[in-house]
Specification:
Strand content: 15-25%
Keywords: FAD, Flavoprotein, NAD, Nucleotide-binding
CATH architecture of the largest domain: 3-Layer(bba) Sandwich
Number of helices: 15
Cofactor: FAD
Structural class: alpha/beta
GO molecular function, one term: dihydrolipoyl dehydrogenase (NADH) activity
InterPro entries: Class-I_Pyr_Nuc-Dis_Oxidored, FAD/NAD-bd_sf, FAD/NAD-binding_dom, FAD/NAD-linked_Rdtase_dimer_sf, Pyr_nuc-diS_OxRdtase, Pyr_nucl-diS_OxRdtase_dimer
Radius of gyration: 24 Å
Organism: Streptomyces liangshanensis
CATH topology of the largest domain: FAD/NAD(P)-binding domain
Protein backbone atom coordinates (compact mmCIF):
# COMPACT_ATOMS: atom_id res chain seq x y z
CA UNK A 1 0.00 0.00 0.00
CA UNK A 2 0.99 3.66 -0.25
CA UNK A 3 2.65 5.62 2.55
CA UNK A 4 1.24 8.60 4.49
CA UNK A 5 -1.31 9.32 1.76
CA UNK A 6 -2.92 12.38 3.36
CA UNK A 7 0.30 14.10 4.44
CA UNK A 8 3.00 15.59 2.24
CA UNK A 9 5.84 18.06 2.44
CA UNK A 10 4.79 21.59 1.55
CA UNK A 11 6.16 23.80 -1.20
CA UNK A 12 6.42 23.70 -4.93
CA UNK A 13 9.33 21.25 -4.93
CA UNK A 14 7.63 18.66 -2.72
CA UNK A 15 7.00 15.56 -4.87
CA UNK A 16 6.44 12.04 -3.69
CA UNK A 17 6.35 9.07 -6.06
CA UNK A 18 3.88 6.39 -5.00
CA UNK A 19 3.25 3.17 -6.95
CA UNK A 20 -0.17 1.52 -6.88
CA UNK A 21 -1.89 -1.18 -8.86
CA UNK A 22 -4.92 1.07 -9.44
CA UNK A 23 -5.43 4.82 -9.15
CA UNK A 24 -9.05 6.00 -8.93
CA UNK A 25 -9.73 9.68 -9.67
CA UNK A 26 -12.98 10.67 -7.98
CA UNK A 27 -14.36 9.33 -4.70
CA UNK A 28 -18.07 9.41 -5.42
CA UNK A 29 -20.17 6.24 -5.48
CA UNK A 30 -18.63 5.25 -8.83
CA UNK A 31 -15.03 5.64 -7.68
CA UNK A 32 -15.78 3.89 -4.41
CA UNK A 33 -17.18 0.87 -6.24
CA UNK A 34 -14.16 0.64 -8.55
CA UNK A 35 -11.90 0.77 -5.50
CA UNK A 36 -13.88 -1.84 -3.59
CA UNK A 37 -13.87 -4.37 -6.46
CA UNK A 38 -10.18 -3.78 -7.20
CA UNK A 39 -9.34 -4.29 -3.52
CA UNK A 40 -11.45 -7.47 -3.51
CA UNK A 41 -9.23 -8.64 -6.38
CA UNK A 42 -6.13 -8.18 -4.20
CA UNK A 43 -4.88 -4.95 -5.80
CA UNK A 44 -3.44 -1.89 -4.07
CA UNK A 45 -5.60 1.18 -4.65
CA UNK A 46 -5.31 4.95 -4.25
CA UNK A 47 -8.49 7.04 -4.33
CA UNK A 48 -8.16 10.75 -5.16
CA UNK A 49 -10.76 13.41 -4.37
CA UNK A 50 -10.74 17.21 -4.66
CA UNK A 51 -14.07 17.88 -2.90
CA UNK A 52 -16.14 15.70 -0.57
CA UNK A 53 -15.72 11.94 -0.47
CA UNK A 54 -19.11 10.71 -1.64
CA UNK A 55 -19.34 13.06 -4.60
CA UNK A 56 -22.23 14.88 -6.24
CA UNK A 57 -24.76 12.15 -5.52
CA UNK A 58 -24.27 12.17 -1.78
CA UNK A 59 -24.30 15.92 -1.19
CA UNK A 60 -25.90 17.82 -4.11
CA UNK A 61 -27.97 15.40 -6.17
CA UNK A 62 -29.65 12.04 -5.47
CA UNK A 63 -29.56 11.97 -1.68
CA UNK A 64 -30.54 15.57 -0.80
CA UNK A 65 -33.11 15.82 -3.60
CA UNK A 66 -34.91 12.69 -2.39
CA UNK A 67 -34.66 13.89 1.20
CA UNK A 68 -36.44 17.09 0.15
CA UNK A 69 -38.99 15.27 -1.97
CA UNK A 70 -40.14 12.61 0.46
CA UNK A 71 -42.00 14.93 2.91
CA UNK A 72 -43.69 16.66 -0.03
CA UNK A 73 -44.77 13.36 -1.58
CA UNK A 74 -45.83 11.88 1.76
CA UNK A 75 -48.25 14.77 2.32
CA UNK A 76 -49.49 14.54 -1.27
CA UNK A 77 -50.07 10.80 -0.85
CA UNK A 78 -52.04 11.32 2.35
CA UNK A 79 -54.26 13.85 0.63
CA UNK A 80 -55.24 11.23 -1.95
CA UNK A 81 -56.86 8.95 0.66
CA UNK A 82 -60.29 9.54 2.19
CA UNK A 83 -60.00 9.72 5.96
CA UNK A 84 -56.33 10.58 5.83
CA UNK A 85 -56.62 13.86 3.96
CA UNK A 86 -58.69 15.27 6.83
CA UNK A 87 -55.73 14.73 9.15
CA UNK A 88 -53.41 16.80 6.94
CA UNK A 89 -53.57 20.38 8.09
CA UNK A 90 -51.21 23.30 8.10
CA UNK A 91 -48.03 23.69 6.06
CA UNK A 92 -45.01 21.49 5.71
CA UNK A 93 -42.33 22.45 8.23
CA UNK A 94 -39.46 23.68 6.09
CA UNK A 95 -37.17 23.63 9.11
CA UNK A 96 -38.04 19.97 9.58
CA UNK A 97 -37.48 19.20 5.92
CA UNK A 98 -34.15 21.02 5.78
CA UNK A 99 -33.07 19.32 8.99
CA UNK A 100 -33.95 15.95 7.49
CA UNK A 101 -31.97 16.82 4.35
CA UNK A 102 -29.00 17.91 6.44
CA UNK A 103 -29.00 14.62 8.35
CA UNK A 104 -28.97 12.56 5.18
CA UNK A 105 -26.07 14.55 3.74
CA UNK A 106 -24.34 14.33 7.16
CA UNK A 107 -24.16 18.15 7.24
CA UNK A 108 -21.82 17.94 4.24
CA UNK A 109 -19.22 16.22 6.44
CA UNK A 110 -17.54 13.36 4.57
CA UNK A 111 -15.76 11.80 7.54
CA UNK A 112 -17.84 8.62 7.45
CA UNK A 113 -17.31 8.02 3.74
CA UNK A 114 -13.61 8.83 3.98
CA UNK A 115 -13.32 6.29 6.79
CA UNK A 116 -15.13 3.74 4.60
CA UNK A 117 -12.57 4.19 1.81
CA UNK A 118 -9.73 3.61 4.25
CA UNK A 119 -11.67 0.73 5.77
CA UNK A 120 -11.54 -1.28 2.54
CA UNK A 121 -7.77 -0.91 2.53
CA UNK A 122 -7.48 1.87 -0.04
CA UNK A 123 -5.41 5.03 0.44
CA UNK A 124 -7.22 8.36 0.23
CA UNK A 125 -5.44 11.42 -1.16
CA UNK A 126 -7.07 14.85 -1.28
CA UNK A 127 -6.30 17.38 -3.97
CA UNK A 128 -6.65 18.19 -7.66
CA UNK A 129 -5.62 15.20 -9.77
CA UNK A 130 -4.62 15.12 -13.42
CA UNK A 131 -3.04 12.66 -15.79
CA UNK A 132 0.63 13.19 -16.60
CA UNK A 133 1.13 10.74 -19.43
CA UNK A 134 0.60 7.00 -19.47
CA UNK A 135 -0.18 5.46 -16.06
CA UNK A 136 0.88 8.60 -14.17
CA UNK A 137 -1.34 10.88 -12.07
CA UNK A 138 -0.20 14.06 -10.33
CA UNK A 139 -2.09 15.27 -7.26
CA UNK A 140 -1.68 18.89 -6.20
CA UNK A 141 -2.69 19.53 -2.60
CA UNK A 142 -4.09 22.75 -1.15
CA UNK A 143 -0.70 23.64 0.34
CA UNK A 144 1.01 23.51 -3.05
CA UNK A 145 2.62 20.12 -2.62
CA UNK A 146 2.54 17.50 -5.35
CA UNK A 147 2.37 13.76 -5.26
CA UNK A 148 3.04 11.66 -8.33
CA UNK A 149 1.32 8.28 -8.48
CA UNK A 150 2.04 5.53 -10.96
CA UNK A 151 -0.52 2.85 -11.76
CA UNK A 152 0.74 -0.60 -12.65
CA UNK A 153 -2.62 -1.85 -13.96
CA UNK A 154 -5.19 0.92 -14.29
CA UNK A 155 -6.28 4.52 -13.84
CA UNK A 156 -10.06 4.93 -13.48
CA UNK A 157 -11.46 8.39 -14.17
CA UNK A 158 -14.67 8.71 -12.14
CA UNK A 159 -14.96 12.48 -12.11
CA UNK A 160 -18.65 12.84 -12.92
CA UNK A 161 -20.31 15.78 -14.63
CA UNK A 162 -21.20 19.43 -14.12
CA UNK A 163 -24.44 21.28 -14.68
CA UNK A 164 -24.69 23.10 -18.03
CA UNK A 165 -25.93 26.67 -17.81
CA UNK A 166 -26.62 28.36 -21.16
CA UNK A 167 -24.67 31.49 -22.03
CA UNK A 168 -27.37 34.15 -21.85
CA UNK A 169 -27.29 37.93 -21.56
CA UNK A 170 -27.43 38.88 -17.88
CA UNK A 171 -26.47 35.41 -16.65
CA UNK A 172 -23.72 36.52 -14.27
CA UNK A 173 -25.84 39.14 -12.52
CA UNK A 174 -28.77 36.71 -12.24
CA UNK A 175 -26.68 34.22 -10.21
CA UNK A 176 -28.78 31.21 -11.28
CA UNK A 177 -29.18 28.03 -9.31
CA UNK A 178 -27.96 24.67 -10.56
CA UNK A 179 -28.72 21.35 -8.90
CA UNK A 180 -26.29 22.29 -6.12
CA UNK A 181 -28.12 25.41 -4.98
CA UNK A 182 -31.47 23.67 -5.52
CA UNK A 183 -30.56 20.91 -3.08
CA UNK A 184 -28.60 22.80 -0.43
CA UNK A 185 -30.68 25.98 -0.09
CA UNK A 186 -31.85 26.78 3.43
CA UNK A 187 -34.55 29.21 2.32
CA UNK A 188 -37.67 28.79 0.21
CA UNK A 189 -37.85 31.29 -2.65
CA UNK A 190 -41.25 32.91 -2.96
CA UNK A 191 -41.15 32.50 -6.75
CA UNK A 192 -38.94 29.99 -8.52
CA UNK A 193 -38.49 29.54 -12.26
CA UNK A 194 -37.20 26.12 -13.26
CA UNK A 195 -35.73 25.84 -16.76
CA UNK A 196 -35.59 22.30 -18.16
CA UNK A 197 -38.02 19.40 -18.38
CA UNK A 198 -35.69 16.51 -17.59
CA UNK A 199 -35.34 14.62 -14.33
CA UNK A 200 -33.76 17.41 -12.28
CA UNK A 201 -36.26 19.95 -13.54
CA UNK A 202 -39.42 17.97 -12.78
CA UNK A 203 -38.18 16.71 -9.40
CA UNK A 204 -37.08 20.14 -8.20
CA UNK A 205 -40.31 21.71 -9.44
CA UNK A 206 -42.18 19.09 -7.40
CA UNK A 207 -40.08 19.64 -4.28
CA UNK A 208 -40.05 23.43 -4.17
CA UNK A 209 -43.72 23.83 -5.06
CA UNK A 210 -44.49 21.47 -2.20
CA UNK A 211 -42.26 23.46 0.13
CA UNK A 212 -44.13 26.68 -0.62
CA UNK A 213 -42.60 28.27 -3.71
CA UNK A 214 -44.73 29.43 -6.62
CA UNK A 215 -42.98 27.47 -9.33
CA UNK A 216 -43.00 28.07 -13.07
CA UNK A 217 -41.48 25.26 -15.15
CA UNK A 218 -40.20 26.16 -18.62
CA UNK A 219 -39.27 23.52 -21.20
CA UNK A 220 -38.58 23.59 -24.92
CA UNK A 221 -39.81 20.03 -25.40
CA UNK A 222 -42.37 17.78 -23.67
CA UNK A 223 -41.32 16.74 -20.18
CA UNK A 224 -39.08 13.69 -19.72
CA UNK A 225 -38.60 13.36 -23.48
CA UNK A 226 -36.49 10.19 -23.28
CA UNK A 227 -39.37 8.19 -21.86
CA UNK A 228 -42.65 7.09 -23.43
CA UNK A 229 -44.68 10.17 -24.50
CA UNK A 230 -47.49 9.51 -22.02
CA UNK A 231 -45.02 9.79 -19.13
CA UNK A 232 -44.31 13.47 -19.70
CA UNK A 233 -47.98 14.19 -20.23
CA UNK A 234 -49.00 12.59 -16.93
CA UNK A 235 -46.14 14.20 -14.99
CA UNK A 236 -47.06 17.59 -16.48
CA UNK A 237 -50.67 17.06 -15.39
CA UNK A 238 -49.49 16.15 -11.89
CA UNK A 239 -47.34 19.25 -11.64
CA UNK A 240 -50.24 21.43 -12.79
CA UNK A 241 -52.55 19.80 -10.24
CA UNK A 242 -49.97 20.65 -7.59
CA UNK A 243 -49.97 24.30 -8.60
CA UNK A 244 -46.93 24.47 -10.91
CA UNK A 245 -47.25 26.74 -13.95
CA UNK A 246 -45.98 24.42 -16.71
CA UNK A 247 -45.07 26.04 -20.03
CA UNK A 248 -43.90 23.84 -22.90
CA UNK A 249 -42.26 25.09 -26.09
CA UNK A 250 -40.58 28.17 -24.63
CA UNK A 251 -36.97 29.24 -24.03
CA UNK A 252 -35.21 31.87 -21.94
CA UNK A 253 -33.44 34.52 -24.02
CA UNK A 254 -32.14 36.94 -21.38
CA UNK A 255 -31.99 37.62 -17.64
CA UNK A 256 -31.83 40.84 -15.62
CA UNK A 257 -31.07 41.32 -11.92
CA UNK A 258 -29.87 44.89 -11.47
CA UNK A 259 -30.36 44.75 -7.69
CA UNK A 260 -28.31 41.86 -6.24
CA UNK A 261 -30.94 41.46 -3.53
CA UNK A 262 -33.87 41.93 -5.87
CA UNK A 263 -35.87 39.70 -8.20
CA UNK A 264 -34.74 38.17 -11.49
CA UNK A 265 -36.43 39.38 -14.66
CA UNK A 266 -36.71 36.40 -17.05
CA UNK A 267 -37.24 37.17 -20.74
CA UNK A 268 -38.78 34.43 -22.90
CA UNK A 269 -38.60 33.87 -26.64
CA UNK A 270 -42.36 34.35 -26.99
CA UNK A 271 -41.99 37.94 -25.77
CA UNK A 272 -43.33 37.39 -22.27
CA UNK A 273 -41.43 38.21 -19.07
CA UNK A 274 -41.48 36.54 -15.69
CA UNK A 275 -40.30 37.84 -12.34
CA UNK A 276 -38.76 35.36 -9.92
CA UNK A 277 -36.81 35.34 -6.69
CA UNK A 278 -34.56 32.58 -8.02
CA UNK A 279 -34.07 30.76 -11.32
CA UNK A 280 -32.85 27.17 -11.60
CA UNK A 281 -31.27 25.87 -14.79
CA UNK A 282 -31.66 22.10 -15.19
CA UNK A 283 -30.60 22.06 -18.82
CA UNK A 284 -28.16 19.17 -19.06
CA UNK A 285 -24.71 18.08 -17.94
CA UNK A 286 -21.17 18.31 -19.30
CA UNK A 287 -18.31 15.88 -18.56
CA UNK A 288 -15.90 16.90 -15.81
CA UNK A 289 -12.87 16.22 -18.00
CA UNK A 290 -11.56 19.71 -18.77
CA UNK A 291 -8.74 19.74 -16.20
CA UNK A 292 -7.79 16.07 -15.80
CA UNK A 293 -4.86 16.00 -18.23
CA UNK A 294 -6.51 14.23 -21.15
CA UNK A 295 -4.19 16.04 -23.56
CA UNK A 296 -1.20 14.20 -22.04
CA UNK A 297 -2.55 10.89 -23.38
CA UNK A 298 -3.76 12.16 -26.75
CA UNK A 299 -7.39 12.93 -25.84
CA UNK A 300 -9.40 16.14 -26.04
CA UNK A 301 -9.95 18.01 -22.76
CA UNK A 302 -13.60 18.58 -21.91
CA UNK A 303 -14.87 15.72 -24.06
CA UNK A 304 -17.09 12.78 -23.30
CA UNK A 305 -14.91 9.67 -23.36
CA UNK A 306 -15.60 6.80 -25.76
CA UNK A 307 -15.19 3.42 -24.07
CA UNK A 308 -15.42 -0.27 -24.90
CA UNK A 309 -17.59 -2.83 -23.13
CA UNK A 310 -15.20 -2.87 -20.13
CA UNK A 311 -15.17 0.97 -19.96
CA UNK A 312 -11.55 1.08 -21.18
CA UNK A 313 -11.05 4.33 -23.11
CA UNK A 314 -10.77 3.86 -26.86
CA UNK A 315 -7.77 5.52 -28.48
CA UNK A 316 -5.45 4.87 -25.53
CA UNK A 317 -3.09 1.93 -25.99
CA UNK A 318 -2.71 -0.76 -23.36
CA UNK A 319 -6.21 -0.86 -21.80
CA UNK A 320 -4.99 0.97 -18.68
CA UNK A 321 -7.25 4.05 -18.76
CA UNK A 322 -10.92 3.64 -17.82
CA UNK A 323 -13.74 6.20 -17.91
CA UNK A 324 -16.53 5.21 -15.56
CA UNK A 325 -19.90 6.79 -14.82
CA UNK A 326 -21.15 10.07 -16.25
CA UNK A 327 -18.06 10.88 -18.32
CA UNK A 328 -18.65 8.03 -20.78
CA UNK A 329 -22.21 9.35 -21.39
CA UNK A 330 -23.78 5.88 -21.43
CA UNK A 331 -26.30 6.80 -18.73
CA UNK A 332 -25.89 9.73 -16.34
CA UNK A 333 -27.35 7.85 -13.38
CA UNK A 334 -25.63 6.94 -10.13
CA UNK A 335 -26.83 3.35 -10.11
CA UNK A 336 -25.69 2.80 -13.69
CA UNK A 337 -22.27 4.26 -12.89
CA UNK A 338 -21.96 1.93 -9.91
CA UNK A 339 -22.85 -1.01 -12.17
CA UNK A 340 -20.07 0.00 -14.56
CA UNK A 341 -17.69 0.48 -11.66
CA UNK A 342 -18.14 -3.04 -10.33
CA UNK A 343 -17.42 -4.44 -13.79
CA UNK A 344 -14.36 -2.18 -14.21
CA UNK A 345 -12.89 -3.19 -10.85
CA UNK A 346 -13.31 -6.86 -11.71
CA UNK A 347 -11.90 -6.34 -15.22
CA UNK A 348 -8.78 -4.59 -13.93
CA UNK A 349 -8.23 -7.36 -11.41
CA UNK A 350 -8.67 -10.03 -14.09
CA UNK A 351 -6.24 -8.29 -16.46
CA UNK A 352 -3.73 -7.89 -13.63
CA UNK A 353 -3.92 -11.62 -12.91
CA UNK A 354 -3.55 -12.50 -16.59
CA UNK A 355 -7.01 -14.03 -16.69
CA UNK A 356 -9.20 -13.91 -19.82
CA UNK A 357 -12.07 -11.42 -19.82
CA UNK A 358 -15.67 -12.44 -20.33
CA UNK A 359 -16.93 -9.65 -22.59
CA UNK A 360 -19.74 -11.57 -24.28
CA UNK A 361 -23.20 -9.99 -23.90
CA UNK A 362 -24.18 -10.20 -20.24
CA UNK A 363 -20.68 -11.51 -19.44
CA UNK A 364 -18.86 -10.72 -16.19
CA UNK A 365 -16.76 -7.97 -17.77
CA UNK A 366 -19.28 -6.40 -20.20
CA UNK A 367 -21.50 -3.39 -19.47
CA UNK A 368 -24.34 -4.86 -21.55
CA UNK A 369 -27.06 -3.27 -19.43
CA UNK A 370 -25.90 0.18 -20.56
CA UNK A 371 -27.35 -0.59 -23.97
CA UNK A 372 -30.34 -2.77 -23.15
CA UNK A 373 -31.61 -2.37 -19.59
CA UNK A 374 -31.01 1.04 -18.01
CA UNK A 375 -33.54 1.63 -15.19
CA UNK A 376 -34.56 5.13 -14.20
CA UNK A 377 -37.04 6.61 -11.75
CA UNK A 378 -38.24 10.17 -11.23
CA UNK A 379 -39.87 10.93 -7.90
CA UNK A 380 -42.55 13.29 -9.08
CA UNK A 381 -46.28 13.13 -8.32
CA UNK A 382 -47.04 10.75 -9.98
CA UNK A 383 -43.80 8.77 -10.00
CA UNK A 384 -42.32 7.78 -13.35
CA UNK A 385 -40.25 4.62 -13.81
CA UNK A 386 -38.89 2.87 -16.88
CA UNK A 387 -36.32 0.29 -17.95
CA UNK A 388 -35.02 -0.77 -21.35
CA UNK A 389 -36.29 0.56 -24.67
CA UNK A 390 -39.35 2.62 -25.38
CA UNK A 391 -41.61 1.47 -28.19
CA UNK A 392 -40.12 4.08 -30.53
CA UNK A 393 -36.55 3.20 -29.62
CA UNK A 394 -37.20 -0.51 -30.12
CA UNK A 395 -38.75 0.10 -33.53
CA UNK A 396 -35.83 2.32 -34.59
CA UNK A 397 -33.45 -0.44 -33.51
CA UNK A 398 -35.12 -2.80 -35.97
CA UNK A 399 -37.22 -4.90 -33.60
CA UNK A 400 -40.71 -6.06 -34.48
CA UNK A 401 -42.60 -5.01 -31.38
CA UNK A 402 -45.96 -4.69 -29.76
CA UNK A 403 -46.70 -2.14 -27.06
CA UNK A 404 -49.20 -3.25 -24.42
CA UNK A 405 -50.84 -0.56 -22.26
CA UNK A 406 -52.97 -0.90 -19.13
CA UNK A 407 -54.56 1.74 -16.91
CA UNK A 408 -53.81 1.23 -13.20
CA UNK A 409 -57.44 2.02 -12.37
CA UNK A 410 -58.23 -1.61 -13.24
CA UNK A 411 -55.89 -2.95 -10.53
CA UNK A 412 -57.54 -3.64 -7.13
CA UNK A 413 -54.26 -3.13 -5.26
CA UNK A 414 -54.20 0.51 -6.26
CA UNK A 415 -56.49 1.18 -3.29
CA UNK A 416 -53.45 0.86 -1.02
CA UNK A 417 -51.96 4.00 -2.55
CA UNK A 418 -54.75 6.35 -3.50
CA UNK A 419 -58.46 6.79 -4.03
CA UNK A 420 -59.01 7.48 -7.70
CA UNK A 421 -55.52 6.19 -8.47
CA UNK A 422 -54.28 7.57 -11.78
CA UNK A 423 -51.54 5.71 -13.60
CA UNK A 424 -50.53 3.80 -16.67
CA UNK A 425 -48.19 0.95 -17.55
CA UNK A 426 -46.65 -0.24 -20.80
CA UNK A 427 -44.70 -3.32 -21.85
CA UNK A 428 -42.70 -3.36 -25.08
CA UNK A 429 -42.62 -6.95 -26.34
CA UNK A 430 -40.22 -8.33 -28.95
CA UNK A 431 -42.63 -10.35 -31.07
CA UNK A 432 -39.93 -12.50 -32.65
CA UNK A 433 -38.43 -13.69 -29.36
CA UNK A 434 -41.50 -13.00 -27.18
CA UNK A 435 -39.41 -11.32 -24.50
CA UNK A 436 -39.57 -7.85 -22.98
CA UNK A 437 -37.50 -5.04 -24.43
CA UNK A 438 -38.83 -2.40 -22.07
CA UNK A 439 -41.37 -1.47 -19.41
CA UNK A 440 -42.74 1.84 -18.19
CA UNK A 441 -44.89 2.69 -15.16
CA UNK A 442 -46.46 6.00 -14.11
CA UNK A 443 -48.41 6.38 -10.88
CA UNK A 444 -48.09 6.62 -7.09
CA UNK A 445 -45.57 4.12 -5.71
CA UNK A 446 -44.57 2.62 -9.06
CA UNK A 447 -40.85 2.95 -8.32
CA UNK A 448 -41.04 -0.31 -6.37
CA UNK A 449 -42.33 -2.09 -9.48
CA UNK A 450 -39.28 -1.33 -11.55
CA UNK A 451 -36.83 -3.95 -10.37
CA UNK A 452 -39.12 -6.82 -11.32
CA UNK A 453 -39.31 -5.34 -14.81
CA UNK A 454 -35.53 -4.92 -14.88
CA UNK A 455 -35.06 -8.58 -14.02
CA UNK A 456 -37.50 -9.59 -16.75
CA UNK A 457 -35.64 -7.51 -19.35
CA UNK A 458 -32.12 -8.52 -18.28
CA UNK A 459 -33.08 -12.16 -17.86
CA UNK A 460 -34.89 -12.19 -21.21
CA UNK A 461 -37.69 -14.05 -19.48
CA UNK A 462 -40.19 -15.41 -22.05
CA UNK A 463 -43.54 -13.67 -21.75
CA UNK A 464 -45.41 -17.00 -21.37
CA UNK A 465 -43.19 -17.80 -18.37
CA UNK A 466 -44.03 -14.48 -16.75
CA UNK A 467 -47.64 -15.69 -16.46
CA UNK A 468 -46.40 -18.06 -13.73
CA UNK A 469 -44.96 -15.22 -11.64
CA UNK A 470 -47.99 -14.71 -9.38
CA UNK A 471 -48.57 -11.19 -8.05
CA UNK A 472 -49.82 -10.81 -4.49
CA UNK A 473 -53.36 -9.54 -3.95
CA UNK A 474 -54.05 -6.70 -3.35
CA UNK A 475 -50.91 -4.89 -4.52
CA UNK A 476 -50.14 -2.67 -7.48
CA UNK A 477 -47.80 -5.42 -8.70
CA UNK A 478 -50.98 -7.07 -10.01
CA UNK A 479 -50.48 -4.72 -12.96
CA UNK A 480 -48.34 -7.53 -14.36
CA UNK A 481 -51.38 -9.82 -14.45
CA UNK A 482 -53.39 -7.22 -16.37
CA UNK A 483 -50.53 -6.45 -18.76
CA UNK A 484 -50.07 -10.12 -19.60
CA UNK A 485 -53.81 -10.58 -20.07
CA UNK A 486 -53.83 -7.62 -22.44
CA UNK A 487 -50.93 -9.11 -24.39
CA UNK A 488 -52.72 -12.45 -24.83
CA UNK A 489 -55.84 -10.65 -26.02
Amino acid sequence: MGKSPETSRTGQDARTDLPYDVVVVGAGPVGQNVAERARAGGLSVAVLERELVGGECSYWACVPSKALLRPVLAVADARKVDGAREAVSGKISTDGVFGRRDRYVTDWDDTGQADWVRGIGADLLRGDARLDGARRVVVRTADGGETVLTARHGVALCTGSDAVVPDLPGLAEARPWTNREATDSRTVPGRLVVVGGGGVGVEMATAWQGLGSRVTLLARRPLLPRMEPFVGEMVADGLKDGGVDVRIGVSVTALHRPDPDGPVDVVLDDGTRLEADEILFATGRSPRTTAVGLETVGLTPGSWLDVDETCAVRGVDGSWLYAVGDINQHALLTHQGKYQARIVGDAIAARAAGEPLDTAPWGAHATTADRHAVPQIFFTDPEAAAVGLSAEEATRAGHRVRAVDVDFATVPGALLHADGYRGRARLVVDLDRETLLGATFVGPGVSELLHSATIAVVGEVPVPRLRHAVSCFPTVSEIWLYLLKAYRG
